[in-house]
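User: I'm putting together a teaching handout on how multi-component assemblies are represented. Below are the sequence lines for each component of a complex, exactly as they appear in our records. Could you produce the 3D structure of the whole assembly as structure tokens, so the students can see both representations side by side? Please keep the chain order the same as the input.
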Amino acid sequence: MGAVTPLVKENKPSGSVKPIVDLTKADMERVNALILSKAGSDVEMIPEVANHLISSGGKRLRPMLTLATAQMFGYQGDSHVRLATSVEFMHTATLLHDDVVDESDLRRGKSSARMIWGNQASVLVGDFLLGQAFRMMVETGSMEALRVLSDAAALIAEGEVFQLAVSKKMETTKDDYIAVIRGKTAELFAAAAEVGPIIAGASAEEQQALRNYGMNLGLAFQLVDDVLDYGGSSADLGKNVGDDFREGKITMPVILAYQHGDDAEKAFWRKAMEDGENDDAALEKARTLIARHNALNASVSLALEYGEAARRALAFAPDTPVRDALMDVVDFCIARIS
Amino acid sequence: MGAVTPLVKENKPSGSVKPIVDLTKADMERVNALILSKAGSDVEMIPEVANHLISSGGKRLRPMLTLATAQMFGYQGDSHVRLATSVEFMHTATLLHDDVVDESDLRRGKSSARMIWGNQASVLVGDFLLGQAFRMMVETGSMEALRVLSDAAALIAEGEVFQLAVSKKMETTKDDYIAVIRGKTAELFAAAAEVGPIIAGASAEEQQALRNYGMNLGLAFQLVDDVLDYGGSSADLGKNVGDDFREGKITMPVILAYQHGDDAEKAFWRKAMEDGENDDAALEKARTLIARHNALNASVSLALEYGEAARRALAFAPDTPVRDALMDVVDFCIARIS
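Assistant: Of course. Below is the structure of the complete assembly, with chains in the same order as your input.
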């Protein structure tokens, strides 16, 4: 492993999802039942493909955000269950399409759907789940929730296209990269946390606060994911370490290492990311350069900043178990770096 | 060409889209402006990919249906322009995803987007346009239009997955096939024609009548498309003749020829469609067998029946220029067989 130094441990929070899991347990059972029902179809291939991914053990963090944020404002109806399921379907659709885009062979530690059923099924079942998501939103009758989630649908795709456009381009800046992950990851976290207060009839300020919480949480979450791609293990991550590198995906650690590199290092990065010279030896060298310039630690620091902003967004709220649970989610996302 | 006989000419209507084009001209200019604006993005790849397809000269029949059916009930606002644009974006998104699914190299006579920008861009820009479509629906404030179009989004994808599931399967029945094209094609025609009366505040009966019109028109339209794939020319069709055959897509002419074929012919079809023995000689033989069993004429007859049902659905309406124009669209769709 050469000169790879351990990640920063100081100030690293040790959150847990247990509080939010416990608080949303009853509602999540209804979400899980609705997921199975709405992924159903007489066309057998649809539940096959959908359930392959749905049953593969994602944490369902996003729907839990919707349930918890509705609870936070005392919501008593059942529209939050539909909206939470919509959010999870939007996420699942994105994963199915991402696997086609990234040509991934692994997802959550299992063969990706496209490896089993082909790109075609992944594209079309993703489209089906997105359609089902919008049908459930319509069932809630909340035009405001529809506005937030349709905005998210467009902005997620826009972020993904931006990522594709800057892929293999070493001139990608930090700002470009934050714009990419804001779209591809943080917008759905933000929307998930915003539709809870919306359906509960919270004030515009409260909606905006929860939106800010979700947005900053999402940015922190993605930055941690990017760090794990250079430092975690395949078992933790449900994908292969170095996947981003091999796909020429420019992430924060790479941007920072490149910016601080000398000419020879810059040339290495261009060859690796732009020309595809990205074998195992190149990955090892990339990790060494990232460590040399402290680029993982700097990425983690940035994640901690966004995490802090997410916590600050909740400061307005009374000190309740739901608020604490949402705070813990922030710490949990960052604590995945072990 | 051997034994290929000419298509039925008797009773063939000779409709025109000119009346509907003329009636919706002013509104379509607003739709076209909105298409350009809503396909815009700071991420340059999005308008590039979207405009490649958007500017390639589709007839924009579906948005014209929305505009004309709103006009039919005296609509005076501007939500029909947004809904018509949403319908066209849903269609464009489907085409982008279809090209990936079918691995097509041609679309409307030009290189398909996926050949120029790759599968990735086609998947993601399709997702973006779908998101933009839902945002525009939300802008109209019509929950009922959202219900109809989100139903359509899910049912279109379901039809496409069903097509994938029965692809290369010679046991596909006529009923299976009608279910496929109902989803993949007719649902969007039906929705396009239904949201016009909805936004105009027409009665539930009127909405249902226009929905029936669109549904039957869509079925006729797709059956004609399938016939053209074995009988038209590449220039007319904007794709290659025999594409369906080479992709192992089971369409009505194939189903009918297979059902009436002897054991040797059935063996030929299975080899061609299921095992992929589909070179030019095989295509030629397929056309001969289709002609021998009169399968193109039978498919055209079926299209004529659906066309008749579409016309009947309009019988309730007063004899106005809009109603006549919608009748002419039916005849035009069928008259593409020349």
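A couple of points students might notice: The longest helix of chain B spans residues 113-140. The first strand of chain B starts at residue 106 and ends at 107.
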